[in-house]
Each structure stands twice: as structure tokens, then as C-alpha cells.
């Protein structure tokens, strides 16, 4: 998947906004292909993709900050497509093109009432005169660059502007967030009415394109696919199976970091329900030995990534004539592992991206690398993957290793598996499992005083994390009923010997990530 004659799409330049991925999500939902690139990418790379539209994201900086992310002025002169600038993007354009920006006397965060001054603006076609929008900014534009006109105001201050001759449109608010009620319409006005794009980004088109890409890449070779037991690797395996059939051999590794019964049950499920050829590899001793004494989360991820690759390469050598490794890498894995988010730093090295060794004998095939999780599930439905696989909660490739804060020990894995099983059982009994995105316990590296019967205890603490989300890029903590939380707590503390306290994680993403490590 890339910018082609078939998928003429939109490029998003990221200036560090927490909402950049939401912009991409809204565009994809509209059936248009898009990619996110850092703000400082070379102009030649942008031009080589021939985008039909360019979006400048928001960001936390002021245009006057010493290290504020900048925009190459020459890009505006050479890029041959409409531009939509959002929040910081608007301020940066105004500043670069001769307008004036200053710190606002009153910073705006949250709801605001927007008055559309130019109902004939292509960006505001079909909208009412007044709309509720979502603001998040500290600076404001007090004078526009030459050639621009005001298209919307808030409290009599400029909030949107445009230069029709240059096809530049800019808004101070965030149309990509759900709180901007007409935001979807504004984005689609830009995509369809201004950029003249056609909706052709769909699960069926992705499958057709990827099957052709896989066949061209693989030729007559065989491939191995690293199954994790989760949705992503299952969909990747199904896609490759459609492309080359039995020349794909799936490898499912018992890392010793899986949930209770996961290895046996999942392997049987893949073979029975998806007609995949699966080799099971028992390697728990290898993983636990490699992790011994390691408590840094980045090191744990990198060790696990390298150990996976070692095993896959050993299996490939044993099978013979294998040149490629299939992975279920997703777009969020890439975004969070590589600083594609403009000035933001790497969030974490996913074991299958930043955790890979520098030298590998196998070449990677990652058919889902540019997709979000919900897009992958839609592909899974098109590929007729059974619901019992497709509706599973996401489970990280490094497994329970990143749900144990600190060093990974056999006894701690035992505690965590038991707690995990109870949490899943209670959510399913309450018919809540499918209504949340992800639920799991985290074993903390602390102990607390407790009383059980007539005895004082000093045992470990479990944190329970349950979130709602649509794509995993943003998430909110699930408001579980108190009686469900009480049952989960009672059962874990009563049934898991070694745990005497349970806490519930009530932070969203951002500022936290979903996983603790």
C-alpha cells in the first residue's frame, strides 16, 4: 500500500499533535488513503508521492519557541495540491506567509462556539452559521498574510482563513476530534470538494492489492509466518494464505510468556478454523533465560524481538528454501516505535519493529504495516476469519513480560496468569468482554500489608487495566460497574495466593499508554 494511481491520497505532516493519528483515522474512514510523515521530511520525498492533498497537523509549540518545528517555505511554492492547516499549522502558515501571531490573552481548551463568516467557503459548504468546535491552543493570529480572507471567527477573533488562489485553507479548531460535531463534514469537504478525491480505500481493495504485492514479492519461495495468537498475525497469515496457499508455514512459539492454556488452544484453533499449517515451538526456557536479571522495559522488548527472530531463522533453516518472514505489524507499531510523529519522541520499541536485530537473514513481509487495528478487523471479516479469533482482545507480542513491572520470573508469571484468567472469566460472565477494547492485570514490583483471617500478610499488588477504544491509538478507562470490580477484586485476592491488594487504573491514552511497559 502506497501512493499510486489507484490510491491517490493525502499526506499529513505531523508537528507533534496528540491528535495527528485521529486526522489519519478520519481520512481513512472516508475511504481515502493517507500517510503520516514528520514535519521535517524533505520536500523531494513529499513531491515524489504526488499527494492530492496536504494536511499540516496541530502541535504543542508556539511559533516563537526556539526549537519550534518549522515548515520549509519552498514547499508551499512547489507542492501542487490543496493544503489544510490545523491549529499550530494555521499559526505556522500565518507566521511564514507574512501574518502576525501572538500569545492569546486567554488560552482555549475545550468547547467553543464558531461563527462561520463565509458560508461560500469550500471548506464550510453545507454547514450551519454557528457550530460547536474543540479548541486546544495558546497562540492566536491577529493579522492574516496577504491574499487571505477570514472564513470563521470565535469571540470576534480569527479562527479560520483561506486563500482560494493558492488553495490553502486553515482552521484554529480541531475538526478531527469527535467533539467538533461537524468535523467529519469539514474534513470530507476538503477531501471530496477541494481535493476532488474519490473513495476507493476499502478492505476489499486492500486485500486485492496486497495479494498481488505478496505474490510478486515471494515468487516461488516459501515463507514462514510468526503467529502470536492475536488478531494481527492471524489476519496477516490469512492474507498470505490467500496469496500463496500452502507455501506459507506458520510458527507459533511458546515463549513462556503466554496466557494460561494459550499455546495448545490457539494452535489447535488456527489449524482447525483457518486451515493453516502450524508448527509449534516450545521455547520458554530460552526466553526466560534471556530475560533473567533484566528489568528495563526497552531491553525486555529488544531481547524478546531478537529471540523471536533467532527461532524463526532456525525454523526457516530447518524447513529449507524459506526467504521471507510474515509479521502482523500495524501502523500504530510503526508510529510508536519510530519517531514518525514529528518532534515527539519514540514511545516504545515494539518487539516487531524497534526490537528487531539489525541483521536478519529473513526478509520481512508486513501486509498490515499501514493499517490501524479496526481496519485489520474489517479485513479479517472479509477474509472470513472466525469470530472467536477476530473478537479477541489485543495481546502484545512480548506477552506477559511487559505486564510484569521489573524482572520476569517464573513465579510472577504464575501469579499473573491466574489473575488474567479470573479477570477474563468475570468480564465474560458479565457480558462485558466484547464491549471493552482490552482488559488485563499488571503485576507491580511492590508489596503491601494486608490481613487475611487472623494473619498479617505482606504480599504483591495487582493493577487492573480495562480500556475502551476504536483503534488503540487513543483510549479511555472503562467505567465498569462497582459490583463487577468488587467480584474481580474478591476472586483475585482469594484465589491467587501471593496477591493481597488490587488497584484499578483510571488513566486515559494519552497521557498514558495502554500497556504499562
By secondary-structure content and strand pairing, the structural class works out as alpha/beta
* Beta-strand content: 15-25%
Number of domains: 3
CATH C-level name of the largest domain: Alpha Beta
Please tell me how large the radius of gyration is.
25 Å
Beta strand count? 18
Instruction: Kindly report how far apart the N and C termini lie.
Output: 30 Å
Uncertain segments are: 338-355
Oligomer: single chain
Report the helical percentage: 25-40%
**What's the CATH architecture name of the largest domain?**
3-Layer(aba) Sandwich
Number of helices: 15
Biggest beta-sheet profile: 9 strands, mixed
Which outline best applies?
A: globular
CATH superfamily of the largest domain: HUPs
| Average pLDDT metric | 88
User: In order across it, which strands form the biggest sheet?
Assistant: 2-1-3-4-9-8-7-5-6
Quote the CATH topology of the largest domain. Rossmann fold
What does this structure look like?
With 517 residues, this protein is α/β, with parallel strands linked by helices. The protein has three domains: 10-194, Rossmann fold (3-Layer(aba) Sandwich); 203-390, Rossmann fold; 409-504, GMP Synthetase, Chain A, domain 3 (2-Layer Sandwich). 33% of the residues lie in helices and 25% in strands. It has 15 helices and 18 strands. The chain has helices at residues 20-29, 43-49, 73-78, 88-96, 183-194, 203-218, 231-244, 262-274, 284-291, 297-319, 331-337, 373-382, 387-390, 410-429, 482-495; strands at residues 10-14, 34-38, 53-56, 83-86, 100-116, 130-143, 149-154, 157-163, 168-171, 222-227, 248-254, 278-282, 322-326, 363-365, 438-452, 455-468, 476-477, 499-504. It has a nine-stranded mixed beta sheet, sandwiched between helices. A five-stranded parallel beta sheet has the order 12-11-10-13-14, sandwiched between helices. Strands 15, 16, 17 and 18 form a four-stranded mixed beta sheet that branches. Strand 3, helix 3 and strand 4 form a beta-alpha-beta unit. Helix 6 packs across helix 12, helix 7 (231-244) packs across helix 12 and helix 9 (284-291) runs antiparallel to helix 10. The two termini are 30 Å apart.
